[in-house]
Write a structure and sequence with these properties.
By secondary structure, this protein is an alpha/beta fold. The chain has ten helices and eight strands. It starts with a helix and ends with a helix.
Length: 269
Amino acid sequence: MGRFKIRIFLKKFFDTKFRINSKDQSSHNDYKVEKRKYDQKKYKIKLVTSYDKNFEEIGNKTSETLKNYADKFNYTFEKINQVNFERPYAWNKIQILLNEMKNSNFDYILWVDADAYFNRYDIDIADEIDENKHIYLVKHYCEVHKGSYYDNTKLAILRINTGVLLMKCCLHNEKFLKEVWRKEEYINHDWWEQAAIMDILGFKSELNGNLNDNKGDSFYLENLKFLSNKWNSIPSNYDLSMEKQNPCIIHLAGMTKENRVNYLKRNLK
């Protein structure tokens, strides 16, 4: 058999033996298998926020984005009215989260402060869930007032931010929230409930002035997951800017009411 005939024979053999069947391929498509697995593990998530009449100009705009995000991923959204606990309004977050865990049938509660809004709708918060973790939040590098011993440098420390807080509905978190509520020494602190959470989680350096006391409590760290900053991005004009490229959630923390309103007018159509 000549070389040419051998070449023709081999080509026909391999074309027949290893021909890709498009129908068979689609029925074993890896993407469809993964999608089926994902659907089986879909979580019931509720998005919540709260604000009073003084914050409606901001909260009404940001809450629209929460509803849009919930609709996108078939989650539930509720703007919960103010509850009078005779504490600064920020403390409502703790009781609202606690009540939601006790009285709802959701797997997770996603709290978003009223001065934060969804900037994009193509990333599902459920993708961040690790079933071994109970609390999810973001930490930022922040400049500390003690400064640095070195010229042309700034001293920064990691600070948690509770403006976006994903919590698993479980007994562990019910106990945690009750412990936060009992931290009455922080009722009128500048950071309110966040200061109490920082204390309990073991990030105390900015509370007691000891920069070495920011290692975290191992008991809570085992159940804590730090989310990417894209889930809680704070615009900043300072050198240590916390704003990321095209984040999921933009949080207007630390701004005056007027600056928040103007920012939303410019950036949230």
